[in-house]
Write the structure tokens for this entry.
Amino acid sequence: MEKEWAGTTYGNAWMHRWLIRMLRYIDVRVLYAFTAIFVIPVCLLVNPAGGIIYRYFRKQHGYGPLKSAIKTYQNHYQFSQVVIDKFATYAGKTFRMEIEGAEHFQQLARGVESFVMLSSHIGNYEIAGYTLSSDQKPINALVFFGEKAFVMNNRSKLFADTNTRMIPIRPDMGHLFEIDQALQNGEIVSMPADRLLGSQKKLLIPFLNDTAAFPYGPFSIATIRGLNVLAVHVMKQSTRTYKIYVTPLSYNREAPRQQQIQELAQQYVAEVERMVKLYPTQWYNYFEFWKDDEC
């Protein structure tokens, strides 16, 4: 059985500090080239994620063997760029951000009601937290509980400038109380909606030529109060440029509750599928997303 990716940033605090120091003085493209030549080939040989992503291109996109192999390399290369870019922001570097649909965020941020932003493990969503911000409403971002302390500390420093605070997803589900309090206060809650974390309650939804399991919780949280919901994805365009897609998701708020949850989930999955079709190599779920025993 293949070992699934743990979901944490590779390396220890010493390595991370040296990476940040280097990025203060060198261009990110130097590290891009280094990983392309020396790191990615090794990763493809020893990391089971290579086979997982190869199957993703073969089955979900219908590519042939050669094209799937090339795309698998490109996927790992782009993921290494995303990681480098995160540390580059910790080092003080900035990226050009294009935003499609910014008016949807701004309109809701000016209102008195709370709302929810749903993200996915595609592109580089963390960088959105350094760009999308509201003076009127704090943003409460759900993050993986097991991430390295050094990475969390650097995120906190940058998020402090954008009125954003992190809520770690805890095994005891304590994060649900913090989410509830934030929504009661009319604040913004940002959370991933493409992984089963904590509660294993799920929705089975058609996605990329198969059926996949999506977490029930994010859609339940949004619909229990009839909140507005935005899908937010941040996709890498070039060395220095990212594009943020802000898309409002709709559902019938007069329908029975389970129907609301299903409609919202389907809207979200349709938006993720749109993004993945536009950027097939920026899919970063390094585990068997379409499991026969799950679906």
Notes: DSSP finds nine helices and nine strands in the chain. The longest strand covers residues 228-236. Confidence is low (pLDDT under 50) at residues 1-9, 146-150. The chain has two domains: 13-90, 96-282.
